[in-house]
Amino acid sequence: MKTKNYFVKWRYLREGRITQCFLYVGDIKTPAGTGIARTYYKDKADKDTGRKISLRYAMKGLDIPKDEREGLWEEYRTMTKKPRW
């Protein structure tokens, strides 16, 4: 997923039921923020929920202005043809 100033990439690890989110700022090749979401072993794994949680954690440590955070969430919501919420 790409916005004006940010690039977001997710990685899924099935064996650990983990979703990792990497948040890149500008053209820098190292992630500025990372977030991890883990599924409880009794729960059903859901990519959408894992993406939301890991993106929230990736943005948590960064000082991103509110309008840019809203832009990231809006871009996530409209990422595919199927509306996310």
Unreliable sequence segments:
none
Gyration radius, rounded: 13 Å
How many domains? The number is 1
CATH architecture: 2-Layer Sandwich
Q: Structural class, from secondary structure content? A: alpha+beta
Q: Figure out the total of helices.
A: 2
Main beta sheet:
3 strands, antiparallel
Integer average pLDDT: 88
Helix content: 25-40%
According to DSSP, the number of beta strands is 3
Query: Which range does the strand content fall in?
Result: 25-35%
Distance from first to last alpha carbon: 17 Å
Assign an overall shape.
Answer: globular
Order of helices and strands: EEEHH
Structural overview:
- By secondary structure, this protein is α+β, with helices and mostly antiparallel strands.
- It has a single domain, classed as 2-Layer Sandwich (Double Stranded RNA Binding Domain), CATH 3.30.160.
- Helices cover about 30% and strands about 25% of the residues.
- It is built from 2 helices and 3 strands.
- It has helices spanning about 45-60, 65-75, and strands at about 5-15, 20-25, 35-40.
- A 3-stranded antiparallel β-sheet has the order 1-2-3, with helices on one face.
- Strand 1 and strand 2 (about 20-25) form a beta hairpin.
- The radius of gyration is 13 Å and the shape is globular.
A few lines on this structure:
The chain is an alpha+beta fold and 85 residues long. It contains 2 helices and 3 strands.
Topology:
Layout: E1 6-13, E2 18-25, E3 33-38, H1 47-60, H2 66-77
Antiparallel strand pairs: 1-2, 2-3
